[in-house]
Design a protein that fits this description.
493 residues; TIM Barrel; nine-stranded mixed sheet; 13 helices; 19 strands
Length: 493
């Protein structure tokens, strides 16, 4: 039989156990706080690092090799002497925007297209200097791309090109849609009804740009579906059409087809004007309405980079350059007249690497997989740690492609042909004509894979042509494992 003293001792023991357990929990809590403090310090360090390396003005080519981590890029800041890297000139992107704005005139808005992570270059790092340089709107393809920019405090209006069919409160886009920052592209009547249902459920007015298929033939409303869509939206307080646009399929290479598509788009414009629907162009006015105005009307836009550079006939109230912001496009304009005052654009991307091996080989030796190239003379060959696994096209194997090599900073460039097949992670280049260089001098030499000099033999458009592809693909296929070094020498846009 338990006595009162036994019960008391039992209660004391229980209390001691509870106090001990509570102390353990406090210790664990302190540990978590300590860990959180460490994370905060680490985050502050990263922010400081970012500001030091990216925002602070620095002189050209003196920027230390620093990688700003992207979703897939885990290469740490510091020594990249053994690796390839992309040098991305953010000042050039801002200058290209200003050049385009000067080309189209003050009455035409500019929507910068940054889909597919800014064509592989980095959407977030590109977006901020473009915003500072005065871009009116940004366009991306899917919701994830929009969420990434919005999470990075990019607050200019945004156009989603993909046919998003529903929105709910759990979406990362919800509060931005509620704030009127998002514009949803409408591709078909069924999608329009789905968005109307989302608007009713959420109690929001969703902003819409109607996408019209004038000859691209992959999605979009037909010309005959535009007026019914506008009538459907007219009396629905949960929907607002703020734009109507189309996309040209061959503005670079088939001027006649571009004009045919433009004629179809102009038929839509005239039909809207005849129906008495308010727009920026129904009365011939080419201006972007005040951002966020309730009565802003409808903005028409048609021109991609090529059409923007080709003729003012395609500009309408807004243009949508993407590739041109990265410094490319004018060189591709063929078949028909182009604008006489195309602004000079600066390529944003430069891809560099090093020679990690050099050796001398006798004439007659076959090079690489399949032995597709036979040395016609005694040759000095170098190996560069770059291949199709990094995004260098295998289509450049034996196709006349070259890189540029220099042995000292500021020294002369030597053109070195790419020999044999492109490997997964290696290129073989011909260094025979680098005069006066020993093998030891060649090892560690700088190799420029893609040049930011439009006249260079390894400029992106030229290599794209040799590979039978397009600058878009060469940029988009650049591997996330490549370090991205973002250079900004004048403190922003």
């Amino acid at each position: 039989m338990s006595t009162g003293a036994d019960v008391g001792r039992s209660r004391v023991a229980t209390l001691d156990f509870q106090i001990s357990n509570f102390k353990i929990q406090i210790s664990d809590f302190r540990s978590r706080i300590s860990d959180l403090n460490f994370q905060v310090v680490d985050f502050r360090f990263r922010i400081s690092h970012f500001r030091l390396r990216v925002i602070a003005p620095l002189s050209p080519r003196t920027l230390p090799a620093v990688s700003i981590p992207t979703r897939s890029n885990s290469i740490s800041a510091g020594n990249h002497s053994h690796a390839s890297r992309l040098e991305i000139d953010l000042d050039a992107a801002a200058e290209n925007l200003r050049a385009i704005r000067g080309h189209v005139g003050a009455g035409v808005a500019v929507c910068g297209v940054l889909k597919k992570d800014g064509y592989g270059v980095g959407a977030v790092p590109l977006a901020h200097p473009l915003v500072r340089a005065g871009v009116d709107m940004l366009a991306v393809y899917g919701p994830e791309e929009a969420e990434e920019l919005l999470a990075a405090a990019v607050t200019v209006p945004m156009l989603l090109l993909m046919p998003v069919r529903a929105l709910d409160r759990t979406s990362g886009l919800y509060r931005h849609a509620a704030a009127g920052r998002l514009n949803f592209s409408v591709h078909d009547p069924e999608q329009l009804e789905s968005l109307a249902a989302s608007g009713r459920t959420l109690g929001l007015t969703l902003r819409l740009h109607l996408y019209v298929d004038t000859g691209m033939t992959r999605s979009g409303l037909s010309e005959g579906e535009v007026l019914p869509a506008l009538e459907r939206v007219r009396d629905d307080r949960h929907l607002q059409v703020t734009g109507i646009y189309s996309h040209l399929a061959a503005a670079d290479s088939e001027a006649a087809y571009a004009r045919e598509q433009a004629s179809g788009f102009e038929r839509v414009l005239r039909a809207i004007a005849a129906a008495g629907i308010d727009s920026h162009e129904a009365a011939g006015v080419k201006a972007l309405a005040k951002r966020g105005a309730a009565d802003e009307g409808i903005t028409f836009h048609l021109a991609n980079s090529y059409a923007t550079l080709r003729s003012a006939d395609y500009h309408h109230a807004m243009v949508r350059p993407g590739l041109a912001l990265l410094g490319y496009g004018a060189e591709a304009l063929i078949d028909g007249p182009a604008s006489s005052d195309i602004p000079p654009l600066r390529p944003v991307v430069r891809w560099v690497s090093t020679i990690n091996h050099a050796a001398r080989y006798p004439a007659g030796r076959r090079v690489g997989y399949g032995g597709t190239y036979t040395l016609p003379r005694e040759s000095v060959l170098g190996v560069v740690p770059v291949g199709y696994g990094d995004g260098y096209p295998m289509g450049l194997s034996g196709g006349g492609a070259s890189v540029r090599v220099r042995l000292i900073e500021g020294g002369p460039w030597y053109v070195a042909a790419v020999l044999g097949r492109v490997n997964m992670d290696q290129l073989v280049v011909d260094l025979t004509d680098v005069k006066g260089a020993t093998l030891d001098m060649l090892r560690g030499g700088e190799v420029e894979i893609y040049s930011d000099d439009p006249a260079a033999p390894n400029a992106v458009p030229r290599l794209a042509g040799l590979a039978g592809t397009h600058p878009y693909e060469l940029l988009c296929r650049l591997s996330p494992r490549l370090a991205r070094v973002y250079e900004q020498r004048r403190g922003g846009g």
